[in-house]
Design the sequence.
C-alpha cells in the first residue's frame, strides 16, 4: 500500500465461518450439485467438489475446494476457513 501502513483484514467470527460452510454444503446436497459450485475464471477462483476413498476405512469423503486454473493444471487453495493452521502443523 502506498503510504506504508498495511491493514489486517477483518475476519468474521469463527462460528459464522463454520455456519457458512455448513449452509454451502447443504445447498450443494439439496440441489444435487446444481448450485454451490462454480468454474474458475481469469480473475476469480472456482469451487469444486473432490471425493476420495479413505485408505484404511474405505469410506468416501467429499470436500469442497477452491481452485485456480493454471493452463492444463488445477491448483487448489489451501485454507482452513481463515482459522489457524492444523494442530499437526502446516
Sequence:
Amino acid at each position: 500500500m502506498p503510504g506504508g501502513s498495511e491493514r489486517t483484514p477483518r475476519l468474521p467470527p469463527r462460528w459464522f465461518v463454520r455456519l457458512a460452510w455448513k449452509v454451502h454444503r447443504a445447498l450443494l446436497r439439496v440441489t444435487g450439485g446444481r448450485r454451490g459450485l462454480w468454474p474458475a475464471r481469469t480473475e476469480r477462483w472456482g469451487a469444486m467438489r473432490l471425493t476420495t476413498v479413505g485408505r484404511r476405512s474405505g469410506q468416501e469423503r467429499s470436500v469442497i475446494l477452491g481452485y485456480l486454473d493454471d493452463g492444463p493444471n488445477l491448483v487448489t487453495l489451501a485454507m482452513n476457513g481463515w482459522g489457524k493452521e492444523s494442530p499437526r502443523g502446516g
Q: What stands out?
A: The mean pLDDT is 82. The longest helix spans residues 14-30. The beta strands are 46-53, 60-70, 73-76.
